[in-house]
Amino acid sequence: MSADLQDEQTLLFRDIVIICIHYQLFPSSLSHVRRSDIRRRGMYRKLFCCFCRAPKPPIDEVVSWRQSLKKLQESKTGQLAFREFLRTEYSEENILFWLACEEYKTITTSNEIAIAAKRIYTEFVQVDAPRQINIDCGTRQEITNSMSQPTLSCFDKAQRLIYKLMKKDCYPRFLKSEIYQVLLEPSEAS
C-alpha cells in the first residue's frame, strides 16, 4: 500500500471516529473530543452524513427539501436529517410522534389498533410520557378519553398540531442549520 493511500485512509478513519464520537456511536471514553475541535480540524463537514449511515444524498434531492416540510418527509434521508436536527434541539419527539401516527393509520385489525394506540399514548401523549409532545390540554384529554375505544383517527388532531409546530418553527430553522448546509455542499468525489 502506498504511503499516500495509507495517509488518506488514516485521515478518513480519524474523521469517521470523530464524527461517530460526536453522535455517541462509540464508547464515552473517547468523547473528550469536542464539536469545536472537530470544526477547527476541518473534519466536521467532510463526512457529516455518516449520522444517517447512508451515502450523501444527491444535491438536487437535498435542494428539493426547501420546497416544503412534506417534500422533506417524503425522503428517508430527509427524515433522518430532520430527526437529527430535532435531536440537537431536544424536540425529536415531534418527528417520532408524527411518524408513529403515519404508521398507526396503516393498521388494519382492531386488536393491533388498540395495542398501537396504547403504545403511542404512553410514549408521547400522557402527562409525563417519556417523549411527551407539546399539545394543549384539551387535545390531550380528547385522546385520553378515546383510549377505551381507539380509532384510526384518535391522534389526528394532535398530529396536525405537531405538524404545524414543525412546519412553522423547526423546519425553517432546519433549513438554516449546519446539518442542512453540509448536505448542500458538493461531495469531494464530484
From TrEMBL:
GO cellular component: cytosol; plasma membrane
Keywords associated with the record: Cell membrane, Cytoplasm, GTPase activation, Membrane
Subcellular location: Cell membrane; Cytoplasm, Cytosol
Record membrane topology: Peripheral membrane protein
Domain RGS residues, every copy: 68-184
Molecular function as annotated in GO: GTPase activator activity
Matching PROSITE patterns: RGS
Entry protein name: Regulator of G-protein signaling 1
Organism listed in the record: Hucho hucho
